[in-house]
TrEMBL record:
Name of this protein: NlpC/P60 family protein
Alphabetized Pfam families for the sequence: NLPC_P60, SH3_3, SH3_YKFC_2nd
Family: Belongs to the peptidase C40 family.
Residue span, NlpC/P60 domain: 208-332
Family matches, as PROSITE patterns: NLPC_P60 (PS51935)
SUPFAM superfamilies for this protein: Cysteine proteinases (SSF54001)
Statement: the UniProt record of this protein carries the keyword Hydrolase: yes
Keyword line: Hydrolase, Protease, Thiol protease
């Protein structure tokens, strides 16, 4: 008992206790806010959600129930209705209010549409304002390295609090053996199993990846069902997949495939290397870019293809994209 009291005292003296549960503030226009659900789904307009989308617009969310309960047609309806997603604890900027919904921009997802981040609408109740968490932005952080991971209420890891996505990043309060205490947006401190995370002092300390590192990360998600606008271990779209793989390794690239195809270094098809991004366009490769995958060598790519499919490895020339190859881009310095 003394040991735990001493630990609590040390944390409090260091000034690292977050706002207690229930004291985080409702967001309003002009705020910097934090994602308060495991995965925040960002909509093209407010109040577009259907009854079947209830698990995705609540707090907490039930992402597996949402995606598993939808039929193919119901998932296909989401195309154009959703913009992107954001993971637990991410910073967003509140741009507008419309009743119980707010327009936000998601920091760290570059797009020419909005300088401060990827824009779209979300329910207010899925965000929180927490100045204490903002103050902890310079703390070391734990980042989830498994497809999904559990946060726990207790150090013994016996009571699950929330399942969170790959690349969720939360400030580290205490490292204790194989258990990590982290801060959350509105529910105090919770525990990770050390095996599910890596800890970094800052984003700049994330090691430069090799092509093999990128491929290993992509392979974590083989057979994961596609989700339009998805950027998490619960489901990806094509560019959300490539964006998230690179982001997890400390490299920020644009959110959308059409913009990803404009940056990095152009690579001729015969010069493609593992880890390069490969793009596909309409009109037999001459029109607008609409798809991206990651090249893995020997004419193959790993990608998240479409609503009817899952993350897969395919030979480009034997896939449905064979006739629409557009270009290659390199974001990994050799």
């Amino acid at each position: 008992m003394r040991k735990w009291l001493l630990m609590l005292l040390m944390v409090m003296v260091a000034g690292f206790v977050l706002t207690p549960p229930g004291l985080a503030k409702e967001v309003k226009k002009g705020d910097i806010a934090f994602v308060d659900v495991s995965v925040l789904t960002v909509w093209a307009q407010p109040n577009l959600d259907r009854p079947i989308d209830a698990p995705a617009v609540s707090n907490p969310v039930d992402h597996w129930k949402w995606t598993n309960d939808m039929s193919y047609e119901e998932k296909l309806w989401l195309v154009g209705k959703l913009e992107t997603q954001a993971s637990y604890g991410m910073r967003v900027n509140v741009l507008e209010e419309d009743g119980d919904w707010v327009k936000i921009s998601v920091e760290g997802q570059p797009t020419p549409r909005e300088e401060s981040g990827y824009p779209g609408w979300v329910p207010k109740g899925q965000l929180t304002k927490n100045e204490r968490l903002e103050d902890l932005s310079n703390r070391p952080f734990a980042t989830v390295t498994t497809a999904t991971a559990s946060l726990y209420e207790d150090r013994s890891l016996s009571k699950e609090f929330m399942e969170v996505s790959f690349n969720t990043r939360l400030p580290v309060m205490i490292e204790q053996g194989d258990k990590i205490l982290v801060g959350t947006p509105s529910d105090g401190n919770k525990w990770f199993d050390r095996a599910d995370v890596e800890i970094y002092e800052s984003v700049d300390d994330i090691p430069k990846p090799t092509a093999d590192d990128l491929l290993a990360t992509g392979e974590l998600f083989l057979d994961l069902p596609y989700l339009w606008a998805g950027v998490s271990g619960f489901g990806f779209d094509c560019s959300g997949f490539t964006h998230t793989i690179y982001k997890a390794h400390g490299i920020t690239i644009p959110r959308d495939s059409s913009i990803q195809a404009q940056y990095g270094t152009f690579v001729e098809r015969e010069d493609l290397q593992q880890g390069d991004l490969v793009f596909f366009a309409r009109n037999h490769g001459t029109g607008a870019v609409h798809h991206v995958g990651m090249y893995i060598g020997e004419g193959q790519m790993i990608h998240s293809p479409n609503t009817a499919s899952t993350v897969e490895v395919v030979k480009i020339d034997e896939s449905s994209y064979a006739s629409s190859y557009h270009s290659g881009r390199r974001y990994l310095d050799n």
